[in-house]
């Protein structure tokens, strides 16, 4: 009788371990599928990019100034938002300028005002 009870306990323990492994693996899989949250950065002034690559990824970046991409410069925005700070004041307008030889690349990104 004791042999059957030990076998039953062993089977239940093994079943509990299998269930625990399935639950933990499902949770781990869910963590890989969830998109990382965007980070809100502090507002910056004018953004001038010349001769280099500037990358924004998984971030909400306010810019309280002009964005200028000069020759050889690239602004690469991936899974992020570039927010140009603006107002109704006609003297407080900001611009995005991409000069000859500059490059602006958006990959699942947004530019807002």
Explain this structure:
The chain is built from one helix and ten strands. It has one helix spanning 2-33, and strands spanning 39-40, 47-49, 53-57, 59-63, 67-69, 74-78, 81-84, 96-98, 103-107, 110-112. The chain has a four-stranded parallel sheet, with no helix packed on it. The chain has a three-stranded parallel sheet with strand order 2-5-8, with no helix packed on it. Strands 3-6-9 form a three-stranded parallel sheet, with no helix packed on it. It folds into two domains: 1-34; 39-112, no CATH class. The longest helix has 32 residues, at 2-33. The protein is of the alpha/beta class and 113 residues long.
Observed structural traits:
elongated, 2 domains, 3-stranded parallel β-sheet, 1 helix, alpha/beta, single chain
